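User: Run a structure prediction on this.
Assistant: Running it now.
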Amino acid sequence: MHNNHTLKGKSRRQFFKQFAAETVSLVEEICGKPQYRLSELHQLPESTIQSMVPVFNGNIKCKVQNDCLVLKTNNKQAHKAVLHLSFHHQSILEKFGTGRSLEQIATCLTGKSDEDFHTIYQQVRKVFLLLAKHNICHPVHAIAKPSKD
């Protein structure tokens, strides 16, 4: 069961959007299609993670402040630092939302760095999973559209 506290303070549109997504997820889980929370993505096979295409969640408010990616919390004045932004992290974030998979992002960045593909891919993966855990970004098809059969 999901806690109602995640829905407090949301507009009706946000409430019904989340409600519909959770309903679809529940139906798919009942039909045998396993569901994962964003914080559980690291449990998926590596080939699945590599093929994920990251996009930003437009409903989450975050900003760059003092070389940190900062997440606005429920308290209007409070902010939570999520990620200290190194040059590599900034380059990675610029590639999110471009329609490229995590593997393609790492390949693209490998040509612009002295580091090898594996090292860069691990950085891309780490940033994506961290931001997904905070709901700042998610795989482009996180909410699968119902099939037409």
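Residues 1-7, 143-149 have pLDDT under 50 and may be disordered.
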